[in-house]
Design a protein that fits this description.
This protein is of the alpha/beta class. It has helices spanning 12-17, 50-57, 79-99, 132-149, 172-182, 200-212, 231-242, 252-257, 260-269, 277-283, 292-296, 305-319; strands at residues 3-7, 26-30, 41-44, 62-67, 104-108, 155-161, 163-165, 187-188, 194-195, 197-199, 217-223, 229-230, 249-250. The chain has 12 helices and 13 strands. The strands form 4 sheets. A 7-stranded parallel sheet has the order 3-2-1-4-5-6-11, with helices on both faces. A two-stranded parallel sheet has the order 7-10. A two-stranded parallel sheet has the order 8-13. The radius of gyration is 20 Å and the shape is globular. The termini are far apart.
């Protein structure tokens, strides 16, 4: 029986992939042990270390490597750390795949490769990353494209998701839900900027759909759910699910200024806070990424954007 190597499989997205494969098909390769229930094989290791990868792949009859491992946080990580994992780690994966005659690699990249821009992006949009994270993900894609060209039988699928949310997610969307639940959240100006987001179960199903249809060569797909909602629509939907009401609207400039005291505390303490002027500014920035390519090829997500938000709020209520 062929198996799949899931690098970074102990994380948020990895936890959901565990539910969609037979447990004896998965080799979970991660720096940390999974905190969720599973019976899959777990091998502790670092994708930046070729020998760690060799131990995970050797003798396992790996058909596909699904690369989820990445440096992606926006606090306390230096430029080189992003590239060490997202580029050099990907190069190590390619090398070990070559040694073990693995022909299929699925790489989770990010819409961060496009950089911040007002217009909608598609897979044909020329990447212009404006962050170390986005640049390092694009560098990882470049490594994989080169690898795919070295053998006509190799298959590389690059998926560029938008902000991913859902049960078990402890990052941005949970912070937003928590702020709305606390009553401290306010609309930033008109809040009419599109925010492309992806419900994790839809993303997993989209990946499996594309995996079944992989062809030799190098292919790229964005992933975002429909309908695309504005920041106001997203926050209002969360508020309704929480039985709350967002009654305050603050001009964008004033809202950013309100984050300055948190910036000072971050600088003085070295601790990460869920609020900062940069994060408030980011909330008011448009991120509009089209996934019409995969939809035009027949994929139909099980949940709408609103459905996904509702399911995450249900999870949040149970965990709070």
């Amino acid at each position: 029986m062929s198996k799949i190597l899931l690098t970074g499989g102990s994380g948020f997205i990895g936890s959901h992939f565990h539910r969609h494969f037979r447990q004896d098909q998965i080799i979970n390769f991660d720096l940390v042990k999974p905190s969720f229930d599973h019976s899959a094989t777990f091998i502790q290791g670092d994708i930046r270390k070729e020998n760690d990868l060799r131990k995970a792949v050797k003798g396992q009859n790996i058909k596909t490597i699904l690369s989820l491992a990445a440096k992606h946080h926006d606090f306390g990580i230096g430029h080189d750390e992003y590239f060490d994992t997202n580029e050099e780690g990907t190069a190590a994966i390619c090398k070990v795949a070559t040694e073990n005659d693995v022909k299929e690699i699925i790489f989770f990249s990010s819409v961060a490769v496009y950089g911040i821009r007002e217009e909608m992006t598609t897979e044909l949009t020329i990447p212009q990353p404006d962050s170390p994270y986005g640049a390092s993900k694009l560098a990882g894609e470049t490594v994989l494209k080169k690898w795919s060209l070295e053998d006509p039988d190799r298959k590389v699928l690059v998926i560029r998701p938008t902000l991913v949310f859902g049960p078990n997610n402890m990052a941005n969307m949970r912070n937003l839900i928590k702020q709305i639940d606390s009553g401290l959240y306010f609309h930033l100006g008109k809040a009419d900027n599109i925010k492309s987001i992806a419900y994790v179960e839809n993303l997993v199903w989209a990946t499996l759909y594309l995996r079944e249809r992989m062809k030799p060569g190098f292919s790229i797909y964005n992933y975002a759910d429909e309908p695309q909602l504005t920041t106001r629509e997203i926050s209002n939907a969360i508020a309704v699910a929480l039985n709350k009401k967002i009654s305050l609207t603050v001009p964008k400039t004033l809202g950013i200024m309100m984050g300055i005291p948190f910036d000072i505390m971050i600088k003085l303490t070295g601790k990460n806070f869920p609020i900062s002027s940069a994060r408030i500014r980011k909330l008011g920035t448009q991120t509009y990424h089209s996934a019409k390519k995969i939809f035009s090829e027949g994929f139909k997500p099980a949940f709408s954007t609103l459905d996904g938000l509702g399911k995450m709020v249900e999870w949040y209520k149970k965990e709070a």
